[in-house]
Amino acid sequence: MYAIADDILITGSGSDDLSAKRDHDANLLALLERCRQQGVKLNRDKLQKRQSVVFMGHELTPNGLRPDKRKVEAIVNMPTPENKAALQRLLGMATFLARYCHNFSEVTSPLRQMLADNSEFRWDVRHTEALDKLKQLLTQAPVLRYFSSSLDTTVQCDASSKCGIAGVLMQQGAVVEFASRALTETEQNYAQIELELLSIQFACERFHTYLYGRHFVVQTDHRPLLAIHKKALIIADTLSRAVPPGSANAANNSAGEELAALTDEQLSDLNMVASQNTINAIRVAAADDPIYQQLKRQIAVGWATVGRPLALS
Known about the structure:
The structure is a single chain. The protein is of the alpha+beta class. It has 4 domains: about 1-50, no CATH class; about 70-140, Reverse transcriptase/Diguanylate cyclase domain (Alpha-Beta Plaits), CATH 3.30.70.270; about 155-225, Ubiquitin-like (UB roll) (Roll); about 235-300, no CATH class. The protein contains 13 helices and 9 strands. The chain has helices at about 15-40, 70-75, 85-95, 105-115, 125-140, 190-205, 210, 225-230, 235-240, 255-260, 265-275, 275-285, 290-300, and strands at about 1-5, 5-10, 55, 60, 65, 155-160, 165-170, 175-180, 215-220. The strands form 3 sheets. It has a 4-stranded mixed sheet with strand order 8-7-6-9. The chain has a 3-stranded antiparallel sheet with strand order 3-4-5. The protein has a two-stranded antiparallel sheet with strand order 1-2. A hairpin with a 2-residue loop joins strand 1 and strand 2. The protein starts with a strand and ends in a 12-residue tail after the last helix.
C-alpha cells in the first residue's frame, strides 16, 4: 500500500498473475478493515480496480512503468517557447519524466543554456532540433522495469566533456531508471578520466535507494579508469612502513610488517617517481615521527569504539 496526499494505491505481487491478484485482494481487504476500525470513510465512486493505473504522473502496468500519456501529449503539443519563462515551464514538465529519457541532460543542453542570467533568449534552428529530439524521446519512452531486490543489478555510467554525465540502472538487461545531470563550469574543465569517475559517483548517489547495502556491478567504457582500478596504488604511509634496518623505531615497526610489504612491481613504480636516496629519506623521517608512529599503531590495532583523544606515548 502506498499513500500520497489523499490517494491510496493498493498493489499485489507474486510469482504469477493469480498469486499477485490474491496478494492484492488481501491487501485491499486489510486496508478496508483498518479504515472501518478507525472510522475513515472512502468515496466509492473513486475506487478503481484495474490492471494498469495512472498514478502521480506515471502509468503502472503489469509489465512495468511508463509515463502518463496525458503529460507526454501536453509537452508535445506545447508551442515553441517565446521567452525564458515559457522555456522554464516546458523544461520543468519534461524534467519530471527524465527518468524515461536516455541522456536527458545532453539533449536539453542547448535549451538550458538560454536560461542563464547572462544569456539572451534567441531561438534558432539548434533549439528547434533539441526540442524536437526531446519530444521524440518522450513519445518513444521505454517501459521501465520494476526493481527487484532478488535480481542482479548493473549500473552503466558515461560522461561527456561538453554536456553532462549519465547513468542507467538495469536488471536482466532491462532499464529500471535513467538519470543524468549537466556539468558545472568547474566540472567542464575536468579531464575525461575525472568525468568518467564523476559519472560513477553521480549514478551511485542518484540510485542510492536501490543500491545501498547491496552488491552491484558498475560498467564503464573508459579503459584507463579500469586500469587504475586494477592497479595497486602506492600511498605515502606505505613508504614509511618499510623502515630501514637499524632505525631507532625499527622494533616498533614489526606489528605493521604485513601492511608495509611492497611488491617488486610497487617498488619498480616507486623508483620511477623518486630516487632511492629520496625514498630512504622519507622512510627515516616517517620512522622518527612520533605522531605518525602512533597513528600507524592505532591503525594496526584498530580504532576505539568510543571517541577519545589519542595519547602520544
